[in-house]
Amino acid sequence: MNTFIEKQNWRYATKKFDASKKITTEDLNFLKEAIRLSSSSYGLQPYQVIIIENPELRAKIQPVAWGQSQIVDASHLIVFANFTDINETTIDAYFDNISKTRNLPLEALQGYADFMKSKILTLSSEEKNIWTSKQTYLAMGNLLNAAAEKQIDVTPMEGFDPKAVNEILGLNALGLNASLIATIGYRHTEDDTQHYKKVRKSQEELFITL
Predict the structure, then answer these.
(1) pTM
(2) What DSSP letter does each residue of 96-134 carry, written as one string?
(3) pLDDT tens by residue, the chain, 210 residues
């Protein structure tokens, strides 16, 4: 069987982490790079990724994340925080980065920059927030796949109070909103969920070929 598919069958949303096991710096950097290289609309990456190791901070988050033990027991807690607004400055900074990275004059990029601005800046604040939040799911997908390659466990979470997490982390002042949470580490031997058969639709049920 293809190794990628084997790893996808191996991974699951871990319910109980072994708090004594920590991810190495090397492996954490691997996961960070996988997140950094994630696809996003226009390549804009309209989010920040916050890695929380501090146990006191994680203890504050646990009650507003439905009391889930993974928040405090996992090796690391990751918060994907989307930009609550996109403005002209954000897009200009992106094109500055393109110019420097690809050694291109900004003038050569102006047409595409104007196009992006015409599509993004005309959105309402609510539409921008929804759009940037969706981008975090792409980054989460890369994290899940990269972690599976290293047999590092991940629990993706939507089960938390974003407003409360925003307040705890001071995200509002930064123009950010907690969109997704991921706990990463190593499954506990007592987590019976790891032995459950993976339940998914069959290919015949899931796919429509036209």
Answers:
(1) 0.95
(2) HHHHHHHT--HHHHHHHHHHHHHHHTTS-HHHHHHHHHH
(3) 579 999 999 999 999 999 999 999 999 999 999 999 999 999 999 999 999 999 999 999 999 999 999 999 999 999 999 999 999 999 999 999 999 999 999 999 999 999 999 999 999 999 999 999 999 999 999 999 999 999 999 999 999 999 999 999 999 999 999 999 999 999 999 999 999 999 999 999 999 999
Tell how far CA 206 is from the center of its chain.
Answer: 25
Q: Do residues 140 and 180 make contact, with C-beta atoms less than 8 angstroms apart?
A: yes
Pseudo-torsion of CA 191, 22, 143, 133, nearest 10°?
90
Token readout for 199 is 């339940």
Contact 50, 81 (CB under 8 A): yes
